[in-house]
Amino acid sequence: MLKINDKAPDFSLKDKEGNTVKLSDFKGKDLVLYFYPKDDTPGCTAEACSFRDEFSEFKKKGIIVLGVSMNNEVSHKKFSDKYKLNFNLLSDPEGIVCKKYDSYGKKSMYGREYYGIFRKTFLINKEGKIKYIFEKVKTDDHANEVLKLFD
Whole-prediction pTM value? Predict the structure, then answer.
């Protein structure tokens, strides 16, 4: 289990344009890395739009925002275009990075068990260490919760 002050696990994933994005690309910057279950679903849309709507505040503070799910780049592009998302979405089709960040496992809905992504957010500081972990996320106001930790 990852905890505060642990070194953030490295990753290399494709973004919605097919470009490779690595954790090391953000050395020296504060980073919000949020994991979400699926593009264009109600909770995931509310969370993404929350970051979109507060993006100028993140930018002013020099904070990078990245969303990660197991959807492919095409799905991310459609989702991003539909809601005019102004930050990058990364594709982790095999869930490798989700697992590294303890954001993938057994879930249950309506008595049915299945495997999927847990909605979690990691704040990673300029030194690449985990500053904070949101285990429970209120999707519609999550960006404001995150911004408060950077004041």
Answer: 0.95
